[in-house]
Write a structure and sequence with these properties.
The chain has 136 residues and is mainly alpha-helical. The chain has 2 domains: 1-53, no CATH class; 55-127, no CATH class. The protein has 4 helices and 2 strands, in the order αβαβαα. A two-stranded parallel sheet has the order 1-2. Strand 1, helix 2 (21-34) and strand 2 form a beta-alpha-beta unit. The protein starts with a helix and ends in a 17-residue tail after the last helix.
Length: 136
């Protein structure tokens, strides 16, 4: 959001996975710096839900894997092929190159999926109501 809009969210809501700790620390620090008058105890910067309580985002991961996630995983795993020596985890040049290239590729892939998801039309169902959730 900072890169695309020049803004930070007031609150980030995620599932309770361990991979979110750095996001929590960053957003809390940004909120304390840029919105010191907004008390964190009144409007928390970060809320972690159980995955089962965060159904829209959990469901969207399935669609992302179907859309392009499998291709990303296959491409990254291909680098581990020992016979072809695409990637040597003991070579600092390989590590640096991997860390320079793959985050950009993964981010582009996630952005493509976000754009697709935010513009797709959900199928109509007479039996249930449908809530569309945009991915920021």
């Amino acid at each position: 959001m900072v890169e695309e809009y020049g803004e930070i969210p007031l609150q980030l809501t995620v599932d309770g996975g361990t991979e979110t700790g750095q996001m929590r620390a960053c957003l809390t620090a940004l909120r304390q710096i840029y919105t010191p008058d907004l008390a964190l105890d009144k409007v928390p910067a970060f809320v972690a839900l159980k995955s089962s309580d965060n159904i829209p985002i959990e469901t969207s991961w399935h669609y992302m894997r179907t859309y392009n996630g499998k291709d990303l995983k296959a491409a990254i795993l291909l680098t581990k092929d020992a016979d072809k020596r695409y990637f040597n985890p003991m070579d600092q040049l390989h590590i640096n190159l991997f860390n320079w290239v793959w985050p950009k590729i993964a981010q582009k892939s996630v952005a493509e999926f976000r754009d697709y998801w935010n513009h797709h039309r959900p199928a109509n169902s007479m039996k249930k109501s449908c809530q569309v959730v945009s991915i920021p």
